[in-house]
Amino acid sequence: MSRKSRSKRTAHKRGLPPESLVYTGHRKEAPATIHAVLYNDATFESIDQFVDIQADKTLWLDIRNLSDTNLIAKTGEIFHIHPLALEDVLNTQQRAKLEEFDNGLFFIVPHLKIDPDNLEFESEQISFFAGKNFIISFQEDPDDSFEQVRKRLEEGLGKIRKKSADYLMYAMLDTIVDGYYGVMDTLEHEVMSIEESLHTNGVHQLAKAKIFKLKRLLSEVKHRILPLREAVTRYYRSDSDIIDQSNRLYFRDLVDHVAQILDSLDSERDMLANMEAFYQAEAANKLNHVMRFLTIISTIFIPLSFIAGIYGMNFDNMPELHTQSGYFILLGVMFAVMVGMLGWFRHKKWI
Amino acid sequence: MSRKSRSKRTAHKRGLPPESLVYTGHRKEAPATIHAVLYNDATFESIDQFVDIQADKTLWLDIRNLSDTNLIAKTGEIFHIHPLALEDVLNTQQRAKLEEFDNGLFFIVPHLKIDPDNLEFESEQISFFAGKNFIISFQEDPDDSFEQVRKRLEEGLGKIRKKSADYLMYAMLDTIVDGYYGVMDTLEHEVMSIEESLHTNGVHQLAKAKIFKLKRLLSEVKHRILPLREAVTRYYRSDSDIIDQSNRLYFRDLVDHVAQILDSLDSERDMLANMEAFYQAEAANKLNHVMRFLTIISTIFIPLSFIAGIYGMNFDNMPELHTQSGYFILLGVMFAVMVGMLGWFRHKKWI
Amino acid sequence: MSRKSRSKRTAHKRGLPPESLVYTGHRKEAPATIHAVLYNDATFESIDQFVDIQADKTLWLDIRNLSDTNLIAKTGEIFHIHPLALEDVLNTQQRAKLEEFDNGLFFIVPHLKIDPDNLEFESEQISFFAGKNFIISFQEDPDDSFEQVRKRLEEGLGKIRKKSADYLMYAMLDTIVDGYYGVMDTLEHEVMSIEESLHTNGVHQLAKAKIFKLKRLLSEVKHRILPLREAVTRYYRSDSDIIDQSNRLYFRDLVDHVAQILDSLDSERDMLANMEAFYQAEAANKLNHVMRFLTIISTIFIPLSFIAGIYGMNFDNMPELHTQSGYFILLGVMFAVMVGMLGWFRHKKWI
Amino acid sequence: MSRKSRSKRTAHKRGLPPESLVYTGHRKEAPATIHAVLYNDATFESIDQFVDIQADKTLWLDIRNLSDTNLIAKTGEIFHIHPLALEDVLNTQQRAKLEEFDNGLFFIVPHLKIDPDNLEFESEQISFFAGKNFIISFQEDPDDSFEQVRKRLEEGLGKIRKKSADYLMYAMLDTIVDGYYGVMDTLEHEVMSIEESLHTNGVHQLAKAKIFKLKRLLSEVKHRILPLREAVTRYYRSDSDIIDQSNRLYFRDLVDHVAQILDSLDSERDMLANMEAFYQAEAANKLNHVMRFLTIISTIFIPLSFIAGIYGMNFDNMPELHTQSGYFILLGVMFAVMVGMLGWFRHKKWI
Amino acid sequence: MSRKSRSKRTAHKRGLPPESLVYTGHRKEAPATIHAVLYNDATFESIDQFVDIQADKTLWLDIRNLSDTNLIAKTGEIFHIHPLALEDVLNTQQRAKLEEFDNGLFFIVPHLKIDPDNLEFESEQISFFAGKNFIISFQEDPDDSFEQVRKRLEEGLGKIRKKSADYLMYAMLDTIVDGYYGVMDTLEHEVMSIEESLHTNGVHQLAKAKIFKLKRLLSEVKHRILPLREAVTRYYRSDSDIIDQSNRLYFRDLVDHVAQILDSLDSERDMLANMEAFYQAEAANKLNHVMRFLTIISTIFIPLSFIAGIYGMNFDNMPELHTQSGYFILLGVMFAVMVGMLGWFRHKKWI
């Protein structure tokens, strides 16, 4: 389940000295793999091991699956990544953040995916360490989230190979933020389908359960994305010399996309809150109808039954019983009472 | 329906490299059209094709219907509009924003319209690229939203032809903001009509459905206009040399109008929340009345029926049955019980 | 009704070019009047027409009733008031604001009045244009809101004639803010009277209706006064040379008064929210009582009636019917059942 | 009652020119008294009349009971207190505030007391005017709130006589803030006692009434103390030369205490809101139980009564009535129905 | 109980002059103990009494159990701790805070523990005074909260002995913050277990009670940790020369952890609020079901009983009674009515 490891150091981590490298996630099946790419405008090389930084090329080192802590430690040593950053790489389910170190920027971003069928929601932690001329990405999952980016690099599509390392960074972040749009699409689609079902089928159990499930999902997604806005904004405003001035516009665009997603989230939350209130009002309304119906039936027949009960008594001396038309008169009276009652209910707008 | 394309990249857009030009809206019937206007204090020309910028004249280039992405790309090339801005022009249903580029300001504003009959609400995205001496406007719809402005330009009414390009920008934004006042008028009118109907007809289904519909509409309108406040304020405060110092007052006025509309929106929301609470209290009140009525009827007749049931039993030895006046005494007792009960209910203020 | 023209440009205004002078209010019976006052420490003149600014005297020009747009336009021309400010003077039901122009400060303040009998609430827009040595006030209503100030000027009471024009401005604003205290007094009095009635008479329809009415009134008053705080604060902090340094303390005092009124408003809103919750809890409580009573009566008599029904059956062979004391034994059993039930209800604390 | 004069100018004050001295409180029995204290490290003098400021001594002038406006006016004249400050001294039930004047600091603080028995809450306004070398305190009540401070001064306890006038100011403010702790203790005690009673006695009327009373009290106390935080913070940060640098730490401590009290207030409000929700859930729960009980009893006996009613009919030809064991079979059937129903209810977990 | 001494000066403290040293906690069994540690990269000494500061070593003085106020006073004298700080050391249940003094930083942090079995929550106040080269820690409890840190010091694990005193400070704060993760784990586990039980067992009393208990716990924990964020942030940003520039990253990491815990707290609160709403909707739903069932049963049998009652009357002249098949026809009619009713309820989707 997605919630199991939400935002905490697991028990075996606590009590250790700070900066201890312990992987707290639960994706351990596959071994860690290294994917290095060296490129500039003219060349493109792909090597599956550690590669040295080269002055005239951009290096993208991609490490997938974090269970091999030694590999992470070794990466840290080679590229001089601060132990606290390394600790955060392994300590998955962190909130999104940007941290500036002397020799680079450290970025943590959650990669969100949602299964449209059962609405199970998954968060993969992706960390970046961006230095002069190189970017190291750490993906929690063994499968590649940046296939599209890799392809564009390899085939030299767009301007990605003409630009410096921070444009690569932007391309990868853009891919992740695109994924958020996908999550939002799924959630918006669900919200709309509930709304329609509320209007066609009326209030029913299923709608209620789904409203609550979606409220929870939206709340979780929001808690994930909210810190990202601050992180991206700080990246965009950072005066680190790692960021090329000409690429700032791209990061501003990213800030804008995240803001737009958060806007949509709030909008959907409003929608759901509105639906919930509608559901409650509708349920209360239904109870009112049921009670009114009970009251009408009871109020008509309880007095009539009483009258019938009177003439069912066995007193010796009940003169009415012995009249020729007493029974028929009584039936008439009962009918009149019933009609009168119905008229009165109509007058009170109960029927 | 207006909600279908709310604030998202559609599926065919995701996965493409950034800066790809894909139109995400759904208004494709008519072909794109170009409307150029060149004017200064003395002259006015209207040409339906691309026109070069001229030092002594202001150029307003208006492009309507965005389905022809090649035309948009070509416009971008001619006027050096940044690819990210072009992408946003086509990516409709964006939030309002202002972005400064080296060679101009880029403005996205939603143009809101509401159908007063069925309260269907529509949002057309209008983008502006304002450079030195020229303004390019991109309208999503094929019909002209700026007819009034065009007329004033053509006939030289007011000071519009005496002022620089940014006053034209102001005139167009003012037209759009005027449209918001129209939307607010419609919504305020609806809110007031519900309020009146609540006070005259009491609580009814229709009112409830309308309260929820209006809450949703207000929430959507607010989500559209809120980012505009920030955008207009930033325009007003921008130190770009494209903005003429003497025209700043006009933009301050615009900021003020947007703030006033948002104020009204909040005020209407308060109103609706208050009505919703009133509706609920009233419904609970009605349930109370119904239950009290049921209780009174039941409490009076259930015991009386029991008494009648007693004397309807067939025991051989029931002395009361054989007395001369037993029946009449019992009727008296029943009547006394009924009166006593009614008195007690009156005492408890239930009737 | 006060709500009719709340915060909007009316329909005939929309579509016009900006800066068009159209009066949007609805007070048109009386003709506009001009009241000019020229004074310094030694002299006081009152003239009912336009007067020129004089270096050694302070000019207060008061224009009442705004239906004559030509007069407003003429005033604007004589005193060089910016067209946007003039537009706002006529466009009543604006939010409070302060705008700085090159030649003066423009202030819009709502003057609130409330009728204590029917709680009808009225807002008159008063605008000020304060320049070096002169103040022009525009009152929407034909009657004078500043009679007291005029008297103090005429009789030379206090230091008002010894001080510069901005002290006059302060005196007028103080009069308006004093009016807010009056509105608050009325509302507080109403809130307290509901509270008392809730504690003495319990929950009743009237209280509920009044709670909702007051909630609405407080919300409206708050929406009016809230923007004023910002406006007065900006006046107090403005570095315009129109404001005499020695008079700043008075404006700080004004800021303080507005803050205090907003505090009171919040306090009253809390009070009403608390009462509303109390009302609801009380109503739920009452329903509980009614239902419990119904349940007790039903639970006692429905089983007893069933027993009586059994012995009212006409089977040939029902041995109990033919015993000598069957009837009396049954009555005893019924009585025992009733007492047992009552004991059980008492045990469950239902009675 | 404490609420009567909450935060407003009373009616006789409105309409007067600003800076008029009118006492708006209601404590008029005793005459105003003056208590002057002159001290330095070595000496201590106590005189009950006006005293001149002396360069080498600190003067504390304490004026109690504010009904004598002439005395206040005279004090203002002697010590050059600004008329606006004097107005605020007399205009009781002000919000806490700090105002800087050229010749001193003006401080208004509410002194809160609560009667633990009936939870009646009282607010006395205490004002301070702190100049170089002297402090003037205005107490609304005739009894001394600063007895402890006076004693410490007289007996030379602690460092109070070694420090400058602003330490005296601190000592007095600390006394007042200590009083807030007392109010909080009383309220916390009440909140805890309700909580305990809710858990032992369940939901009852008394608890509800007390929850609402406490919510109101907490709201009132918060409205009083909230502005004080800002005032004390501004004092602490003020660069007035009246404040001795070495004493700033004490004012920082005061800021901290006020923040802590506001924290506690919020915490208690959360507590009460939680209890209120608990109360409501519990009441709804109780209603559910009652209704379920009614439903069970009704559902069992209404059909059985119907069956008995059938065999109570007087048709000539009802074969069952004439069988030997019909009655007993029917009793058996009825018993079986009852048992079946009970089983079904148990299955549905209603009993 | 944990709540008893929440955030207040106890009664015996009020009324005393400021800076009086009175211990307000309730842990008095054990005598106070002193644990001094002197270390540098090469050496480690542990002495159980006061030790002088040495230029080339770091001194950590740990004082446990605060009941001996003389010892605290003596510590203050030796290390020149400001009396206000000492007062706060003893005045337990303070909010977290950082205060800068001339000769050091004073830090108050709550150490939270929770008993996972009965969810009893305890807060121990730990204070630090950090000067150049030394740290003094005051633990309210006699048992050591920093055993792990002491061990790492003693055994020279990690870089703790290579770094200056503020790294020790960090190590201790990190230990406390780790404890918060533990509290969060317990609370998250409880929230998840309620959620599961809600989905498997449906709505029940126990769940409700636990939801309210957890809401209260989360609220208390939040009130404790919230001020810590500000304190740690101010530490991180402080320009005091006590903080080694190279260690700032560690404190930034701490800020991040506290923010993450607060995030989790908010997330859990959302969760609980969602569950509470679900619980209420579910309970209302259940009531609806019960009422509908009652209504169905009553509506079917009350009219049928009435018909039976009619034919149980004893009128002499009731022709139907004497027909051969009247009884059977009536039974048929009754059956038809019953079936009709059921069909109608089905049509209305009540069954």
Commentary on this structure:
The structure is a homopentamer. The first copy, chain A, is built from seven helices and seven strands. Chain A has about 350 residues and is α+β, with helices and mostly antiparallel strands. Chain A has two domains: about 250 residues, 2-Layer Sandwich (Beta Polymerase, domain 2), CATH 3.30.460.20; about 60 residues, Magnesium transport protein CorA, transmembrane region (Methane Monooxygenase Hydroxylase, Chain G, domain 1, Up-down Bundle), CATH 1.20.58. Chain A has a seven-stranded mixed sheet with strand order 2-1-3-7-6-5-4, sandwiched between helices. In chain A, a hairpin with a 2-residue loop joins β6 and β7. In chain A, α4 packs antiparallel against α5, α5 packs antiparallel against α6 and α6 runs antiparallel to α7. Chain A starts with about 30 loop residues before the first strand and ends with a helix. Chains in contact: A-B, A-E, B-C, C-D, D-E.
Task: Please summarize what this structure is.
Chain A has 351 residues and is of the alpha+beta class.
Q: Which secondary structure elements does this structure contain, and how are they paired or packed?
A:
The structure is a homopentamer of 351-residue chains.
Chain A lengths: L32 E7 L4 E4 L10 E7 L4 H11 L3 H8 L6 E5 L2 E11 L6 E11 L2 E6 L7 H9 L9 H37 L3 H33 L10 H63 L15 H22 L4
Parallel strand pairs in A: 3-7
Antiparallel strand pairs in A: 1-2, 1-3, 4-5, 5-6, 6-7
Helix pairs in contact in A: 4-5, 4-6, 5-6, 6-7
Q: Which structural traits does this protein have?
A:
disordered N terminus; homopentamer; 351 residues; 52% helix; Methane Monooxygenase Hydroxylase, Chain G, domain 1; 7-stranded mixed β-sheet; Beta Polymerase, domain 2; 7 helices; alpha+beta
